[in-house]
Design brief:
41% helix, Beta-Lactamase, elongated, 2 domains, 273 residues, three-stranded antiparallel beta sheet, single chain, 9 helices, alpha+beta, six-stranded antiparallel beta sheet, Arc Repressor Mutant, subunit A
């Protein structure tokens, strides 16, 4: 059974909207229009969140932004997620090993993905800026392919049933480009690579991190300019990510090799790309 409390949903939408850089400082009118909320209802939600220190209001600009109590909540959430904390702590080392920007990606309930952490090596020639908290459709890049490839039929059916009004976009990971044969290949080799799906000229290499229920909990991935990724670099990068995901999956109580199929090892071999 699905539960929905309109006022709570509206408050959540406001917080998510203001977490985006483009909307980080917004007026009542801007927020109401962006979320398609009644202006009076929106004002009540904003005032309530302000009273609880979840929002701050600037009387000079008449705009709202996220409040100080969310800092405490965010820090507390990170502390309570032992594996997420371990994954975040692991990122700088992985970034130095691969020489590329590394990100942690998590799946949200609304068929979107979100960057929850990032790290870049000190010697990265082309620095890729990543905004933690940025969201994008789950069909984008190697990240979404990792979630889709290791999703069980039951999980896929449940997600489709929960959002029957959200059809898959053209060329999504559930469409021809990420056909079952392609997803099967990802399951066999243990990682996904995509070129130009996030933005033209950029590529991503992604590896899933599994929980004890053998579900994809997080995805660890590298972002790079496509011209940087020779087959040899992809091989090296994928192996480093596989090692990192194996360590983190074991934190969750899952042996990462359990998720490969037909006896294929989660290890990239030269010449198999």
């Amino acid at each position: 059974m699905s539960y929905h409390v309109p006022s709570v949903a509206a408050a959540a939408k406001v917080l998510k909207l203001l977490s985006r850089y483009r909307h980080s400082n917004s007026s009542l009118t801007e927020i109401a229009e962006a979320l398609q909320l009644n202006k009076t209802t929106c004002l009540r939600v904003l005032r309530t969140l302000e009273q609880e220190d979840f929002l701050c209001y600037d009387p000079d600009t008449r705009k709202y932004r996220l409040g100080p109590y969310l800092i405490a909540l965010g820090n507390r959430a990170a502390e309570m997620g032992d594996v997420v904390s371990a994954a975040i702590a692991e990122l700088p080392r992985v970034a130095e090993d691969v020489g590329l920007t590394v990100v942690l990606v998590q799946r949200l309930q609304n068929q979107r993905l979100i960057y929850i952490a990032s790290a870049a090596p000190n010697n990265e020639e082309v620095r890729i800026e990543v905004s933690v908290g940025q969201q994008f459709p789950e069909s984008r890049g190697a990240f979404g392919q990792c979630f889709a490839a290791f999703e069980t039929e039951l999980e896929s059916a449940r997600r489709t049933e929960e959002r029957p009004d959200r059809p898959d976009p053209p060329h999504s990971q559930r469409s021809s480009r990420s056909s079952e044969s392609h997803l099967r290949h990802i399951r066999e080799i243990g990682y996904a690579v995509s070129h130009g799906e996030l933005m033209p000229g950029f590529s991503s290499i992604a590896v899933p991190i599994f929980n004890r229920r053998r579900q994809v909990e997080l995805v660890v991935a590298c972002l790079a300019v496509s011209s940087q990724l020779s087959p040899e670099v992809v091989t090296k990068t994928a192996n480093i990510l596989l090692d990192a995901s194996g360590r983190l999956s074991r934190w969750y109580g899952c042996d990462r090799s359990d998720r490969t199929v037909e006896g294929h090892s989660a290890r990239v071999v030269e010449g198999t790309l």
